[in-house]
């Protein structure tokens, strides 16, 4: 029987799509929260984009760029994104759902990925003792390596997060202007 972390890994994208539909239905957007939310979303997108341009999945332990501050900058960026969308929606049910999805779906995936990294890369143990799992440290980890690569950014198709975020922000504006009367 598969572990919850394996199930969570498989269902996280479909759950995200179902959540997006519920999100749009429950959102009560107004101009200022959309603007503040969009700024927060942009911060999350920037963190994700930067992280995707450094990571070489399954090939080497990435310790440079944002990985010098947190072991999981892609998930950290995703949480920042979610907070931005939660702010823009102005609905406590959405905020609660975001927190629940993160704890129930994403934390088990993060822990499972760390088990894999610990087995695959012997230097992960030392790295994980110096760099926090999630909340970034203020100074970079000293054993950093690598440089940002647009090729990696494109390879990981991180631009999909930007396209989806822009589409949802535009949908919120449309809902605010035409559907919330």
Describe the structure.
The protein is mainly alpha-helical. The protein has a single domain (4-179), classed as Four Helix Bundle (Hemerythrin (Met), subunit A) (Up-down Bundle), CATH 1.20.120. Helix content is 69%, strand content 0%. The protein contains seven helices and no strands. The protein has helices at 4-26, 31-52, 73-89, 92-120, 124-130, 150-155, 159-179. Helix 1 (4-26) runs antiparallel to helix 4 and helix 3 packs antiparallel against helix 4. It is globular, with a radius of gyration of 17 Å. The N and C termini lie far apart (49 Å). The relative contact order is 0.19. The model has no long low-confidence stretch (mean pLDDT 93).
Give a topology summary.
Blueprint: H1 4-26, H2 31-52, H3 73-89, H4 92-120, H5 124-130, H6 150-155, H7 159-179
Helix pairs in contact: 1-4, 2-3, 2-7, 3-4
Short description:
The chain has 181 residues and is mainly alpha-helical.
Question: Could you list some keywords that capture this structure?
Answer:
mainly alpha; 181 residues; Four Helix Bundle (Hemerythrin (Met), subunit A); 0% strand
Q: Class, according to the CATH hierarchy?
A: Mainly Alpha
Content-based structural category = mainly alpha
Contiguous helical run count: 7
Anisotropy-based shape: globular
Reported for the largest beta sheet, the result is: none
The number of E-state strands comes to 0
Could you give the order of the helices and strands?
HHHHHHH
β-strand percent reads: under 5%
CATH fold descriptor: Four Helix Bundle (Hemerythrin (Met), subunit A)
CATH architecture: Up-down Bundle
Please state the average pLDDT score. 93
Overall radius of gyration: 17 Å
Q: Percent range for helical residues?
A: 55-70%
How many angstroms does the end-to-end distance come to? Answer: 49 Å
Q: Are there runs of 5+ residues with pLDDT below 50, and where?
A: none
**How many separate domains?**
1
């Amino acid at each position: 029987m598969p572990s919850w972390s394996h199930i969570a890994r498989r269902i996280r994208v479909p759950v995200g799509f179902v959540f997006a539909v519920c999100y749009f239905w429950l959102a009560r957007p107004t101009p200022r929260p959309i603007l503040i939310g969009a700024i927060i979303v942009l911060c999350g997108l920037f963190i994700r984009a930067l992280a995707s341009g450094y990571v070489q999945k399954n090939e080497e332990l990435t310790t440079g760029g944002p990985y010098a501050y947190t072991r999981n900058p892609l998930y950290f960026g995703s949480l920042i994104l979610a907070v931005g969308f939660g702010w823009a929606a102005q609905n406590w049910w959405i905020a609660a759902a975001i927190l629940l999805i993160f704890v129930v779906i994403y934390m088990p995936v993060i822990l499972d990925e760390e088990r894999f990294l610990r087995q695959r890369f012997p230097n992960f143990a030392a790295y994980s003792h110096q760099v926090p799992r999630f909340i970034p440290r203020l100074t970079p980890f000293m054993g950093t390596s690598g440089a940002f690569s647009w090729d990696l950014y494109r390879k990981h198709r991180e631009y999909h997060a930007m396209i989806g975020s822009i589409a949802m922000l535009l949908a919120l504006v449309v809902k605010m202007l035409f559907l919330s009367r």
